[in-house]
Write a structure and sequence with these properties.
CATH class of one domain: Alpha Beta
Structural class: alpha/beta
Shape: flat
Helix content: 25-40%
CATH superfamily of one domain: Succinyl-CoA synthetase domains
CATH architecture of one domain: 3-Layer(aba) Sandwich
Number of helices: 29
Distance between the termini: 21 Å
Strand content: 15-25%
Largest sheet: 8 strands, mixed
Strand order of the largest sheet: 1-2-3-4-5-6-8-7
CATH topology of one domain: Rossmann fold
């Protein structure tokens, strides 16, 4: 579920989250105008709750505390919970000393047991952590069992002391793995409850079902009926008593009995009032098919905000608007609430598409290839239910084995990445991301910002979270067909076997391009294959044009039983000498006992089935072209490798000083409220706080000062301009290196200052020799900090040799990042050169990642070059830009930092 400010464009409105019963609760910062609502809540709270909170029955004390929270500005933080139109809870902390604060909670009795206290605690701890609070303390009466259960179930590390009936709780605000697992489990359970009435309704009402075929409402109603929905179906139309042989009522309020799901096909301006009627009826889920909202501009965005606020206020989960509908093929439900002509058959692929047209294309392609669907959702404008909600929902769905998404935008990409890491460990996630365009390139002064594009952010997110990025819908369906059948590949070794030598060559070429290996088979295997008619001794294995079903089955069994390959592709050209059905039976007989994945490429038969059924219920994919089969296998290999590798951890870094770093940032922004580029002094201070080794920088504003600085640093030195606004110094002649005495320095000073027209320079001792790298950070508005590593120095832009990752950054992320560079052989000691200290480079990368996480105001950072040599890694030229910011706490972005996955 997305936060309201993301969905409606209003900052500061808070976070919409799900209570344990699936209802929607808004948690937001307390405002001054909330005092009357707090007082009203205090009046509704029972005497017992007042006693447990304030250790006495004193409503005046409760009122004083509410006044303090709403009006005093003494460093405390307060969050409130809104349920429907009422404020039902408040949580706060008061600073005690450095790194510690005292917390307090009060909940209205009517919402006890719904998990709202836990949600407040989670957000309060996240906010405290953002503000430098490591520990939250609370004094609680031993008889306050509900609040003790909240603390005990939170997963936060805690210490208890019992004294005179009072328990002192001390909670560490750090996200431990157990904390994160419990938070994920709670959100998944709450999400499933909130989506249950969308996907498993007892009764569906189609609101706006027209009497004439061809209209959207009428066609949806027909699909629900013809799809054999197992529940009750109603039409809502004030001008008819029956439509498509379904009873019709003037409004949803007049429909008899329970209505769980409303499918709305009315003009946009009527949707808000209809949702109000749905709330009165107790409807739990709505699918808004109607267009005319945010896609039409400001007026449409306002309508969209209004329907979202109405739905949230009444805990109605909303799909759309401007969407195709949803499908659940579970025979116990059998719901097709779309106006598409395709009727999916049951299967293992769950699909969500932001575009209705793309959704139809996925369903159509799946039907053509025999791939079944478990559930389908057309997200449309995804004002409420998002891809993140569906990931959580399908994670626990037993019928779903593969998840496919078509996305054009992300509401909360950092949360998506965290969820994908979790879900991907058991279920592959395939994504077609629309909107690739070089026109999205950002404007930026630093090398890092100039190189960053929306695509680099998406690629980094997918690389770290195990998501398989597909170029086309066809590729998504092809890959899903392979991944839906177990087992997964154990490695990259591929065997190609069949009667089509040319197809085998094409398959081998495709495998080489996609990183698969065609190993040479052992002599024993080659002799066994030759005995059944194999031509030659290579891999691909050519059985000749006259290969029989028996010989194919024997060859396939010999290959997969050998243990010398990890997957197999059968390339078979249909001829009059062999019936395709018999070939399919032969493959099925060999595959049912195989412990490696097998796919088939059948050529020349227009009537061949798109899949082969095995006796154990599995269905092998049959492809019309060898290249598409190999491509799908390559994706399966990539997924299997990601899933089997260790999850990685974010290193615990010594020699870092968060307090000092925050002090530098505060000092700078107090004097530069709009932000800007740091001076070398403050840049050096932040590097020192992060523990990054750097060549000291000495500033000078005259020839004599420059000479004095050089003597202090020790010759040989480098001299660089420090003129404001100059970032690429070499481009304007602002750098001189290897200066060995004062005479050379004086000449260099004159040349550099003449080139820039500014007397300000910096002097540094020459760095040790080594490979030049660039390490950078740029903060994306949606994706958060993006970290770049690449070839540095003057080669930065020429080679464009760079890798990107999002944060948090694990040890495996950093290693993969470094080893993926084209310049990696130079670091390893190319052609006899002395190898660089790789661990030192990785350490710098992690320290820059730490700084980017700690300082959300860090908009751009460039270390160019970072010299990587045998004796270590040293930052030589560093630029940093700070901007004011106020980030939203997000526990998903901290999973890896806490050691989770």
């Amino acid at each position: 579920m997305r936060s309201i400010e993301q969905a409606a464009g209003r900052p500061g409105a808070g976070w919409d989250v799900l209570a344990s019963d699936g209802s929607v609760v808004r948690i937001r910062p307390l405002r001054e105008d909330d005092e009357p609502a707090l007082d009203a809540m205090n009046e509704r709270v029972s005497d017992r709750s007042i006693y447990l909170r304030f250790f006495g029955i004193s409503r005046s004390l409760a009122g004083q505390f509410s006044h303090h929270l709403a009006t005093d500005h003494d460093g405390h933080v307060a969050l409130v919970a809104e349920y429907g139109d009422q404020l039902v809870g408040v949580a706060s902390y008061e600073p005690l000393r450095a790194g510690e604060a005292e917390m307090a909670f009060l909940l209205e009795d009517s919402v006890h047991g719904r998990g709202i206290g836990t949600l407040l605690l989670e957000q309060l701890a996240a906010t405290a952590r953002e503000n430098g609070i490591q520990r939250l303390r609370a004094d609680t009466l031993v008889e306050n069992a509900p609040m003790l259960r909240v603390f005990a179930g939170s997963g936060f590390e805690q210490v208890r002391k019992l004294d005179s009936g009072v328990i002192e709780l001390v909670l560490d605000t750090a996200y431990r793995p157990s904390t994160l697992e419990r938070m994920a489990d709670r959100e998944r359970a709450a999400g499933d409850r909130s989506l249950h009435r969308l996907f498993s309704p007892r009764a569906v009402a189609v609101i706006g079902a027209g009497r004439t075929p061809g209209g959207i409402g009428h066609e949806v109603l027909l699909n629900v009926v013809k799809g054999n929905f197992t529940g009750s179906v109603y039409a809502v139309n004030p001008h008819a008593d029956r439509i498509a042989d379904v009873p019709s009522y003037p409004s949803v309020v007049e429909v008899p009995g329970v209505v769980d799901l409303a499918v709305i096909a009315l003009p946009a301006e009527q949707v808000r009032d209809v949702l109000t009627d749905c709330a009165a009826k107790g409807v739990g889920g709505a699918v808004v098919l109607t267009a005319g909202f945010s896609e039409l501009g400001a007026a449409g965005r306002q309508l969209q905000r209004e329907i979202l606020e109405t739905a949230r206020r009444h805990s109605i989960r909303l799909i759309g608007p401007n969407c195709l509908g949803l499908v659940n093929t579970d025979p116990a439900i059998s719901l097709n609430a779309t106006f598409a002509e395709v009727s999916p058959m049951p299967g293992a692929l769950a699909i969500a598409a932001q575009s209705g047209a793309v959704g139809i294309a996925v369903l159509d392609q799946a039907a053509r290839t025999g791939l079944g669907i478990s559930e389908f959702v057309s997200l449309g404008n995804k004002v409420d239910v998002s891809g993140n909600d569906l990931l959580l929902h399908w994670w626990g769905d037993l019928r779903t084995a593969v998840i496919g998404l078509y996305l054009e935008s992300f509401g909360n990409p950092r949360k998506f990445g965290g969820l994908a890491r979790l879900v991907g460990r058991t279920k592959p996630i395939l994504v077609v991301k629309g909107g690739r365009s070089a026109g999205g390139r950002r404007a930026g002064a630093s090398h890092t910002a100039a190189a960053a594009t929306p695509e680099t952010a998406v690629d980094a997110l997918f690389a770290q979270s195990g998501v398989l990025r597909m170029d086309t819908v066809e590729e998504l369906v092809e890959t899903a067909r392979v991944l839906a059948v177990r087992p997964l590949p154990r490695g990259r070794r591929l065997a190609v076997v069949g009667n089509a030598g040319g197809a085998g060559v094409l398959a081998a070429d495709a495998a080489g391009r996609l990183g698969l290996e065609l190993p040479e088979l052992s002599e024993t295997v080659q002799r066994e294959l030759a005995a059944i008619g194999a031509v030659g001794s290579g891999n691909p294995v050519d059985l000749g044009a006259a290969a029989s079903p028996t010989s194919l089955a024997q060859a396939l069994k010999i290959i997969v039983d050998s243990g010398e390959v990890d997957t197999a592709l059968v390339c078979y050209a249909a001829t009059r000498a062999g019936r395709v059905e018999r070939i399919y039976d032969a493959v099925a007989g060999a595959a049912v006992q195989a412990d490696v994945p097998i796919v088939v490429n059948c050529i020349g038969s227009t009537h061949a089935a798109p899949e082969i059924a095995l006796a154990d219920g599995r269905r092998l994919a049959v492809f019309p072209f060898p290249e598409s089969a190999v491509r799908a296998l390559a994706h399966a290999v990539r997924y299997a490798e990601w899933r089997s590798r260790p999850q990685g951890v974010v290193p615990d870094l010594p020699r870092v000083d968060a307090t000092a770093a925050r002090a530098v940032v505060r000092w700078f922004l107090e004097r530069n409220p709009e932000g800007g580029w740091l001076e070398p002094l403050h840049t050096g201070q932040l590097l020192q706080c992060a523990g990054v080794p750097a060549i000291p920088v000495l500033s000078a504003s005259s020839r004599s000062e420059a000479i004095a600085a050089a003597e202090s640093a020790g010759y040989p030195v480098a001299l660089k301009t420090d003129a404001p606004g100059v970032l690429h110094k070499t481009d304007i002649g602002g750098v001189r290196v290897g200066l060995v005495n004062s005479a050379q320095l004086g000449t260099a000073y004159a040349e550099v200052t003449a080139a820039t027209g500014d007397p300000r320079v910096v002097v540094q001792a020459m760095a040790p020799s080594g490979t030049e790298l660039v390490i950078g950070v740029v903060r994306d508005r949606l994706f958060g900090p993006l970290l770049m590593a690449g070839s540095g120095g003057i080669l930065t832009d020429i080679l464009a040799d760079r890798q990107w990752r999002g944060l948090p950054l694990t040890d495996l992320d950093a290693t993969d990042m470094l080893h993926s560079l084209r310049c990696a052989p130079l670091l390893a000691g190319y052609r006899g050169a002395q190898a660089a200290d790789e661990e030192a480079v990785l350490d710098v990368i992690h320290r820059i990642a730490w700084l980017a996480e700690l300082v959300p105001e860090l908009a751009e950072l460039d270390i160019n070059p970072l010299i990587a040599g045998p004796s270590g890694a040293f930052a030589v030229d560093v630029r940093m830009r700070l901007t004011p910011t106020n980030p939203e706490p997000d526990w998903y972005a901290r999973r890896m930092r806490a050691g989770g996955a």
